[in-house]
Amino acid sequence: MPASNKKFLYLAVILPTAVIAFIIGLYFGGNPTISSEIGNAQATDGQFVTGDQFAPFWKAWSILEQKDVNAASTTVSDRIWGAISGLTASYGDPYTVFFPPQQAKMFEENIAGNFGGVGMEIGVKDGQLVVVAPLKDSPAAKAGVKAGEAIVAINGTSTDQMSSDEAVSLIRGPKGTPVKISFLDPGTTKPIERTIIRDTINIPTLDATARPDGIFVIKLYSFTAQSPDLFRNALRQFVLSGDHKLILDLRGNPGGYLDAAWDMASWFLPAGKVVVTEAFGNHAAPQVYRSKGYNVFNSNLQMYVLVDNGSASAAEILAGALQEQGIAKLIGVKTFGKGSVQELVPITDNTSLKVTIALWLTPNGHNLNHDGLDPDYVVPTTNADVQAGHDPVMDKAVSLLSQQP
Questions:
Q1: 11 neighbors 356 (Cβ within 8 angstroms)
Q2: Set 324, 329, 334, 343: catalytic member
Q3: Do 390 and 292 fall within a single domain?
Q4: Whether residues 187 and 278 fall in one domain
Q5: d(CA 405, CA 397)
Q6: How many domains does the chain have?
Q7: Segments forming the whole domain that contains residue 264
Q8: How confident is the model at residue 371, as a pLDDT?
Q9: What's the pLDDT score for residue 321?
């Protein structure tokens, strides 16, 4: 995910690296001892972790070593990786994850693109693994997967307490091989198991259409490195069409690069207007991303943005900026609510920590990760609408624009 800002758009806590160094450096053979490094392990409240505070950890370690029947089958490394994983989980952030050696290797392969998959963005919502959005023409979309569906099992393995990264590692695999995934539609109690054949995933970017009724539609599927240029070309088509009514469709858009959203917003906002703020909590001063001032449109522009529960991260950044700066109104249903930044930090040569370091805030200070965006016009789309080929959200936008001169 995430051009010059290659950050994962995912919540903000800084894991003190001294704590990790402390855990890794303490116990290698012999009896557990408290290292002098403990004085460098500082919590986010400014308090230092003391030997007395850490004593329960070593007591538990010793009891397990002496009494657990499986003690001989685990290595010191296994226990250290498990301890770091537990420490990471204590922050309560589903997007902050420790990768032991095997998982770290898989994650590196995943972000390098060396995989086959089913073509859907997944995340964690209210403690449940859910589909953010299936990609256009992907195996998942063709199998009927919908945004908002919960993922309850993968190849028979329950997803209870499973992180999104763990789920991704199970779903991805060689092209042409099947994966069985059990989905649960919101409001239902009986899961649906779908067998989906993995394929090479090509992420679509953009479609542009000049309708005969004088309305121009840009459908944006994702925020890739190529998106800004494609979006600029689409806007050029819009201007050359002579139309002044624009619909930007961000439904099912799981996001991507921050730079793409920042650049796109700059076509509509005067220089200096806030697009989004990256808030680091108490760890650093916030970074404010302001419009680059491309704004080529005047007050004649009439614009609506279509959103749904599959609109996430960079899609929410762009939609939130256009809504709060008075450029466009939103139509659809509440967005996903995925507004945080993640950074991959190496811990050892073969392990790493994906840690959330910042939150995205809209121009008015709304925390995107906390609650998503509320549309100005709430228009749901039912399963019956989908089956009948109806699009009430698009129809609402067309109706509103048709009433305007």
A1: yes
A2: 324
A3: yes
A4: no
A5: 14
A6: 3
A7: 206-340+358-399
A8: 84
A9: 98
Domain-located, residue 345: no
402 carries an active-site annotation: no
Which of 138, 163, 222, 313 does the annotation list as catalytic? 313
Q: What is the per-residue pLDDT for 5?
A: 37
| Helix intervals (H) in 113-253 | 139-142, 164-171, 227-241
Place of tokens 């908002």: 148
Phi, psi of 127 (to 5 degrees): 80, 0
95: tokens are 């997007």
* Among the listed residues 315, 350, 384, the one whose alpha carbon sits nearest the alpha carbon of residue 123: 315
Residue pLDDT, tens place only, 268-290: 999 999 999 999 988 899 999 99
What tens digit of pLDDT does each residue of 207-217 get?
Answer: 999 999 999 99
Closest among 175, 193, 182 to 119, alpha carbons compared: 175
**Which of these is catalytic: 338, 340, 352, 354?**
338
pTM confidence score: 0.77
pLDDT at 64: 92
Q: What are the tokens at 366?
A: 């709304």
* pLDDT band for position 84 (cuts 50, 70, 90): very high
Do 175 and 226 belong together in one domain?
A: no
Q: State the pLDDT at residue 139.
A: 95
Q: 72: how many CB neighbours lie within 10 A of its CB? A: 7
324 labelled catalytic: yes
**Does the annotation count 67 as an active-site position?**
no
